[in-house]
Amino acid sequence: MQARQFRRAGERESTLPRWNRLLAALAAVALGIPAAAQARSEKSRVVQKALRQSVRVEVQVAGKVVRAASGVVVASDEGRSYVLTNQHVVQREGLRGSANFVVVIERPKLHRLEAKLVAEGEVPDDDLALLSVPEQLTPTQIAAEDEVQVGDDVVVIGAPYGRSLSVSSGIVSQLEADEADSRIQRSMKTDAPIGYGASGGGVFSVPSGKLVGLVEGYRTAKVAFGGVAGNDFSFDVPMPGETFLAPASKLRAFVARAGLARTAGIEGPLPVDARADRRPMAAGSPRRGPLLPRPHAPRL
């Protein structure tokens, strides 16, 4: 009788390790799911916010869209907002007629606004421009120079081929600083894939969601192959890691020179770039800079 009871107790004891392993496995899965969900939602939160701060930019002549690109809302005050994009997007040279600028807001509701060009840089040093629209939109915050490093995770918002805003992700793959003053960022690259129409698109840091760069262009490789009846076909393919950006320090300096430092939340003295415009910040409304022809415009 005692042997039987001992045997039954032994049977119960032998099942405990199996239950312990099962409970441990369930606990690991249960603890793993929130971590993965948290990692996904962190990037998702940045994307959802950035989509509301991003717009499409259209250049129209005689009511027809002749150029489409992207932009980012960087300042908003008293019912008016300012959209940062590229100068080569708004250049009028070569257009057959007077150009009108339209900003397309997708979120929370799709609508179009007539825009005015209020400031533009000099290419190639400042391939930047500011458009003004008569509506209070949600602006992004431009990151400080020390808030972006090579290897940082980023998401890029752009409007490929003039269609709806799309998202790609990658890292900051290159950041070139001035030799004399490391606060002055000369150029920047990301390996996030983009396409035609992404010029002026914002590059947002994960997890801060701040604007760390603006797409200026990208390098392509030509792919060609033989067609039917001797016809050859070729097309350009964006090269990974060759997306060129205007870095944060350049964005901050340009917006400040346009007279929007306070409105855009830019504080403190900015580093002085000997290559850039040394004129003081405008005290009043944004001013419009000179327009120079662009000999080699990057792809939109």
Salient structural properties:
300 residues; alpha+beta; Thrombin, subunit H; 6-stranded antiparallel beta barrel; 12 strands; 22% helix; disordered N terminus
Structure description:
Strands 1-2-3-6-5-4 form a six-stranded antiparallel barrel. The chain has a six-stranded antiparallel beta barrel with strand order 7-8-9-12-11-10. It is built from three helices and twelve strands, in the order αβββαβββββββββα. Helices cover 22% and strands 37% of the residues. Strand 4 and strand 5 form a beta hairpin. It is globular and about 70 Å long. It has a domain at 142-249: Beta Barrel (Thrombin, subunit H). The longest helix is centred in the first third of the chain and has 52 residues, at 2-53. The chain has 300 residues and is of the alpha+beta class. It has helices at 2-53, 87-90, 248-257, and strands at 54-61, 64-77, 80-85, 99-105, 111-120, 129-133, 153-158, 166-177, 185-190, 202-205, 211-226, 232-247.
